[in-house]
Design a protein that fits this description.
With 201 residues, this protein is mainly α. It has one domain: Fido-like domain (Fic-like fold, Orthogonal Bundle). It contains nine helices and no strands. The termini are far apart.
Length: 201
């Protein structure tokens, strides 16, 4: 297993680590590079995919999994597959599929035209926070949840988020601010103001 992990990162189990595809990866810097390349390719896929531009298709369990597979499919053999092991964050692995289905079903109501109790931007951030809280996959959950929130925003016609304009994969003040906002929302799921402010910064 590659160490050290930045604060808030989820360790990949020894069994999950056997799913690493590139044979040259020896350091966290190597892993970050190949994962960043996959995320860039996924952004291109999003731009070209009809499914990414229709809110009903974005807010589906299939799209949640497809997006993760597009992001990490050349790095991890299990990309797009829900985790089966316990994690330092997230729901019980047996509940992941149900939790994701509940989330996308609820989110369809949150982003429906005429919804008065929540703004479209805040609805996207709520989806982001709940995806992180569920932690569906063995790795890449924060990056997946951020890109998912961006795709959802585009599908409902609001600007994508800037997420502090920083690399949130490395330790530093921006990652610390992001994690602090997530943890505040963990304590009170209705207190998403700091997370929204960060996402828009």
């Amino acid at each position: 297993m590659i160490e050290p992990l930045p604060d808030g990162a989820t360790p990949v189990s020894d069994e999950e680590f056997k799913g690493l595809i590139p044979t040259f990866v020896a350091t966290r810097a190597d892993l970050n590079l190949v994962e960043q390349a996959g995320i860039a390719a996924a952004r291109t896929w999003v731009a070209r995919s009809p499914a990414a531009h229709t809110v009903e298709r974005v807010l589906s369990e299939q799209f949640v999994r497809d997006l993760h597979r597009q992001m990490f499919g050349k790095v991890w053999r299990w990309a797009g597959t829900y985790r089966t092991s316990e994690s330092n964050i997230g729901v019980d692995p047996a509940r992941v599929a149900v939790a994701v289905r509940d989330l996308v079903d609820n989110a369809l109501l949150w982003v429906a035209p005429g919804t008065a109790w929540i703004t479209p931007e805040l609805a996207c951030i709520r989806v982001h926070h709940e995806l992180v809280s569920i932690h569906p996959f063995p790795n890449g959950n924060g990056r997946h949840a951020r890109l998912f929130a961006d795709v959802l925003a585009q599908s409902i016609g609001v600007p994508v988020f800037t997420w502090g304009g920083a690399n949130l994969d490395s330790a530093g003040p921006d990652r610390a601010a992001y994690l602090a906002a997530l943890r505040l929302a963990d304590r009170d799921p209705d207190d998403l103001g700091d997370l929204l402010t960060f996402a828009l910064s």
